[in-house]
Amino acid sequence: MKKFRINTAAKILLCTVVLSSCSDILEEEPRNIYTPEYFETESGVLGGVTSMYAHLRYIYGNGYWLNACETGTDEYTYGHAGDGNFKDMDMSGAGNLTPSSSRADVLWNNAFRNINTANGVIQKGSGVGVSDAIIAEARFFRAFDYLMLAQTFGGVPLDLGSGELAFNISTFRGSKRNTVSEVYTKAIFPDLIKAVQDLPVGARVTGGVTKTVARLFLAKAYLTYGWWLQNPNGIPTYPQTDRVDPNGHNPQWYFQQAYDIALEGINAPGAYGLQATYYDVNLAQNDRNKEMLLYADHTESSEYYDGSSHSYNTGASPGNFAAWMTTWDYTFLESSPTPQWTGSPVRTVQREAAQAYGRPWKTMAPTIEVVKNTFANKTQDSRYDGTFVTTFRGNWNKAGISTPTLYNANGLPVQPGSAVLTFLNDDPAQTIDYSNSVYKSNVGAGVLPGRADYVIAPSGISRYAYPNLWKIGTYRTDNGTGLGQPNGGITRPFPVAKFSEFYFIAAEAAVKGASGAVSPRDLINVIRARAGKWRWDNNGNVAKVEDNSGAMIAATPSTITIDYILAERSREYYGEGYRWFDLVRTQRWSDIAKTYSIGGTAVGNHTAQTYTRNIPNYLYLRPIPQGQMDAMDMSSAELAAYQNPGY
């Protein structure tokens, strides 16, 4: 019996986009409904293709999806204001992950809509004169969504109501899940192979998918499926199936394919490539640079086309609000109008629409181990400086406060632009005075002799106060001389895939046994060499032209392991939503993220506590969302069989 309650009919799409024949910009024409007849026209099919790019904004840039991908890994735990959305994902006993609380629902609730649109484009496109290259864009996005779904939930439905991979125009209230191997071999691989064949070398539109983009995801799919077939730690899959490839290949064949395709991407990059420095990869003024293969795009020019208020976003898609989750409430920092600390204090670091600051929702905090261990090398390796905000500078003048000088730690003067608070790179030899008995930071920060800035040591990082995630932070060009609109939706594109990942995929495949001309060490060293090159000290706010690439290469171990690759991936992609997938793919989640330490939620709590996570094997698959379970017309036994075990 074919029943499916995921709203897959084309008519449920919120908008479509019409493509101008003489423009390389995707121009949106919002629509309230799609009708099946609309897909019988060229404009309808083209609109469906463009809506696939828009669908990325409902997943990437959504702060709850970032939470699902990061909280509970070695990169993030819940912050001061983290509620059940975050505590349940942490696996540390503060909450319990359930089908109702898992924020992987963000993916499930949006992917199937897009898949059905892709089904329609692929099925109808050639009949209305749409080129194979444009249909290949739909194939890419269908494979993209199925790859994300299979990694997150295991096997998922290929039949949305009208047959496997067929366009569905009716609403069902049931579903049958395919196995993981079926999803890969029937949908993901064929679509991506065809996409590589038919997509152009150069993008049809700004941010459009190309051969290079498709190659990256084909290589990633081969790598991920090879791990799934091999299953070194005996992690259960669901629906249950023998881990035998229907195409007759063994894991080694897939690792070799991943390596070969990744090398093809490196050697035939098209318009893509690595940025000269890591700082430039994530600098807001350099968004949409050649290293960005795929992104969920946004625009500052129009709320209408951006789909989000630019003055006050409520924390909902399609707005970009992910960075808010990783931002602590720095706005409580205070300084004094007098050296003696008399008079009413002044809030010295105001909420600003700037990459270092933005709106503080304080729900996700980095662990102490991230600062001390993952980013242990902070002097040669530029990635810590290019990832976090560790220096919070005075900007009270932008709020209309005319006082030119205020007084901070040790009664020393600070001016706009001065460091008010610094998260130190290392624990100092001298004891930090966190008492706040005289110099009242208002956030529990400490004082060291001779310094005007308050300080917090790495061992003093807490759920209350921690470095912000700079790389995905707010950026606006319309602030003028003021603070701008920090409560508005972030108008930057959110990165989905980067050219640099070709090197990591090839290196990981080589460690898993793939052979080729380039060793895993040489591949990783391309990334590490770039990390050693500086042109700007971000937190020092000063030029720093320095090349530490030789030292970075020399420090790379002679034998590259999976754990070393995972550590390098964390340094490269920290906080971007990769981590849970990396740890699950390699089956290292329960080992690498097992324990972490951090201070408490109270102001001034700098006493680190160690937490132990409980990550049994069933958690390697997220639960099917409760909303999906409730919407299906199935028996209790059928529903129980549909849900992933353990939930």
TrEMBL record:
Domain SusD-like N-terminal: 96-223
KW Transport (keyword) present: no
Localisation: Cell outer membrane
InterPro entries for the chain: SusD-like_N (IPR033985), SusD_RagB_dom (IPR012944), TPR-like_helical_dom_sf (IPR011990)
UniProt entry tagged with the keyword Transmembrane helix: no
Keywords: Cell outer membrane, Membrane, Signal
Gene Ontology terms: cellular component: cell outer membrane
Superkingdom, taxonomy of origin: Bacteria
Pfam families linked: SusD-like_3, SusD_RagB
Primary location: membrane
All residue ranges annotated as the RagB/SusD domain in the record: 324-647
Record-stated family: Belongs to the SusD family.
Protein name as annotated: Starch-binding associating with outer membrane
Native organism: Chryseobacterium limigenitum
